[in-house]
Amino acid sequence: MKILITAGPTREYIDDVRFLSNASSGRMGYCLAEAAIAAGHEVVLVSGPVDLPVPEGARVSLIETTSELRQSCLELFPRCDGVIATAAVCDYRPHERISGKLTKTGRPITLELTETSDVLAELGEQKEHRWVVGFALESQDPRNNAMRKLRMKQCDCIVLNDTSAISSLENTVEILSPEAETMAVMNGLKSEIAEKLIGFIEREIAR
Ligand code: CTP
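^ thats the input. predicted complex w/ cytidine-5'-triphosphate below
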């Protein structure tokens, strides 16, 4: 199969040197890319800024902003069999990016934020015969929130994890079906989960 994987954080610039982002390490997405390649698949990795080596054998598209993530994914997805979306996307961007460097005034400032595009929801709308696997990082009401995202983004399944996954080498995930059933529970190193998840997708999702 040819698999599109999104990974890492996106950045939304306030001015030319400052940005909003999050603490995603990108590790889960990179482990999935490695596991998919090891299993004989072709991988296209669309990655935000991370401190990880490029997985050998993957085609990588490096992006920074959510808009760049969207552009790359919309271009690549039609030529793939499915997508695994692990990217921790910045949901808001400053309404305008100030050119140069904002100078401090001694007074509080207010940032006006605008919602960014939901990339996975757009891929879900265009999926046709392709499969879509989403990730949901939840700190409250995890199952209901994950199921809302699965439906909104037309996912074939969603991988639910909690905030302890951020920056950790390990993770515990529960995979939920569109019928809200638990399809699998996996825990261990992210590299081990990645291997299991690729096997799971081959057996249960990409049929
Ligand atoms: N996602 C995406 N584009 C966005 C937001 C999220 O493609 N703008 C993808 C993520 O890569 C993940 C899934 O959608 O696979 C769920 O992401 P998450 O951050 O958990 O949820 P959000 O939809 O952003 O909702 P919220 O932040 O309100 O929890």
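The mean pLDDT is 96.
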